[in-house]
Amino acid sequence: MVDLALIYKHIPKVFGTLAFIVNPIFVYLIFTEKSTKFGNYRYVLLYFATFNLVYSVANVVIPIIMKKLNRMACTTSRKISNFQVELLRALIVQTVIPIFVSFFPCVISFTIPIFNLDLGRPINYVEVIALGAFAFCDPVAIVMCLPIFRNRVLCRKQVAKKQKTVETPANVVDSKAPTL
């Protein structure tokens, strides 16, 4: 029987190694060929070769990082674990916001003409509004997702400190103490 875990573990390493052999040769071939034959397509090919190298590095390095993080997991404090969950939540929000605020309205406005629907001139402004809304929504959502930023913006820590100083001021005279 074939162990799928071993295949999953070793195949990316093999292809990552092969990518580091093939892609530099590919880049060399791109740069040594006459520019009149490829024109600007040369840069597209170069982009793909660079992306392939970066992806191969990520495919090899990420499992190593995950192993180290799993070893550290038993030694991390509860506070750090909670903070990592909050950062993951913020990352999910950063992924969802562009999809619904920018991408989805633009796709709708681009595909409406395919169905021969005429929604008038206001539909032309959907893309502009969507892209402008993203620039506002993304930082606001991140500030609201992360308690560190949320507490600073809403001044929660300062209010708690002020309440403590009001409750126990340093110059309060004890009522049972004898007066002179």
Largest sheet features: none
What is the count of distinct domains? 2
How much β-strand is present in the residues? under 5%
Alpha-carbon distance between the termini?
A: 94 Å
- Mean of all residue-level pLDDT scores: 77
Structural category is mainly alpha
Poorly predicted runs of 5 or more residues: 168-175
Using only CA atoms, what is the Rg?
Answer: 29 Å
Question: In words, what does this structure look like?
Answer:
This protein has two domains: 11-75; 76-167, no CATH class. Helix 1 packs antiparallel against helix 3 (41-72). The protein is flat, with a radius of gyration of 29 Å. The chain has seven helices and no strands. The chain is mostly helical.
Task: Kindly summarize this structure in a few lines.
Helix content is 77%, strand content 0%.
Give the helix/strand layout.
Layout: H1 4-32, H2 35-38, H3 41-72, H4 78-111, H5 126-145, H6 147-154, H7 156-167
InterPro entries: 7TM_GPCR_serpentine_rcpt_Srj (IPR019423)
Keywords: Membrane, Transmembrane, Transmembrane helix
Transmembrane segments: 12-31, 43-66, 87-116, 128-149
